[in-house]
Amino acid sequence: MKNPHHTAAIELHGVTVRREGVPVLAGVDWRVDRSDRWVVLGPNGSGKTTLLQVAAARLWPTAGRVEVLGARLGAVDVRTLRPRVALVSGAVTRQLRADLAARDVVVSGRHGALETWWNRYTDEEWAKADGLLARVGVDEIGDRPFGVISEGERQQVLLARALMSDPELVLLDEPFAGLDLGARERLLVRLAALAADPDGPPVVLVTHHCEEIPQGFTHGGLVRRGRLMAAGPLRDVITSAQVSACFGVSVTVGCTDGRWWSRAA
User: How far apart are CA 172 and CA 125, in angstroms?
Assistant: First the structure.
């Protein structure tokens, strides 16, 4: 049996996903270690969300080998594996009832549930949910319906929900989508704090923009047409030449005072 402290958080070998015969991912090899904080960039339709779905044990590949937190898909009961992985995506937002209070959204993340009546929660768990809302900076909205708070507040609530179960791996699928400048900056601060926690779980963030790379992230991946065209230490991957090739447009990329930026060359 593998020592969980010595295994990768994610390990993909030759992973291919086909839909109606068309490859969405093609021969992907990828390793995320336990201390890593990854950002994955790529154009729309490149396969980034599919990559996260595989890494979250929500989608089986057509071919290849997938190991998540030391467990191999096909040889593990995913009902025991999935609660160890927090996936924050638009799909979760759409599944949550709009009139559910924000603190209910958070506490129900303890069991990955969509409703609080599915499980019983202790006073300590409710206190933890309130504490997580405070940690992400939105404790004043705990009793407000999830459907009426702002998009930025929703993302903060979903981050708190993701942390409710003390996950061993956190996957974030385009959490900045639809955020205004202030909401984006506040979320960047929260993710930088998560990245800086030496006891925090490994994190993978999917986004479209270099400006949305939080400080403290260590690794980068570029996905184009279903292939992981570059992966490794952040400064080796997020370069003008490689980002230009990935997005099919000539851009200059740089990093100033720990913040990344890009502009047309």
Answer: 23
CATH code, 256 = 3.40.50.300
What is the spatial distance between Cα 93 and Cα 91, in angstroms, rounded to a whole number? 5
Q: What is the pTM of this model?
A: 0.90
DSSP 146-166: TTTS-HHHHHHHHHHHHHTT-
User: How far is residue 237's CA from residue 246's CA, in Å, rounded to a whole number?
Assistant: 11
Site of tokens 């009902």: 79
Q: Please write the tens of the pLDDT for every residue from 218-236.
A: 999 999 999 999 999 999 9
Is residue 234 a contact partner of residue 212, using CB atoms and an 8 Å limit? Answer: no
Distances in whole angstroms, Cα of residue 80 to Cα of each of 69, 71, 75, 90, 112: 11, 10, 12, 23, 12
Contact 216, 38 (CB under 8 A): no
* Residue 4 belongs to a domain: no
CA distance 237 to 229: 10
Distance of alpha carbon 40 from the chain centroid: 9
Domain count, the chain: 1
Q: pLDDT (tens digit, 9 = 90+) per residue, 26-55?
A: 999 999 999 999 999 999 999 999 999 999
Q: 11: closest CA among 64, 49, 82?
A: 64
Does residue 1 sit within a domain? no
Half-sphere exposure (Cβ direction) of 120: Cα atoms closer than 13 Å: 1
Question: Which domain, by its residues, includes 27?
Answer: 10-264
C-beta atoms surrounding 2 within 10 Å: 12
* Residue 231 identity (one-letter amino acid): A
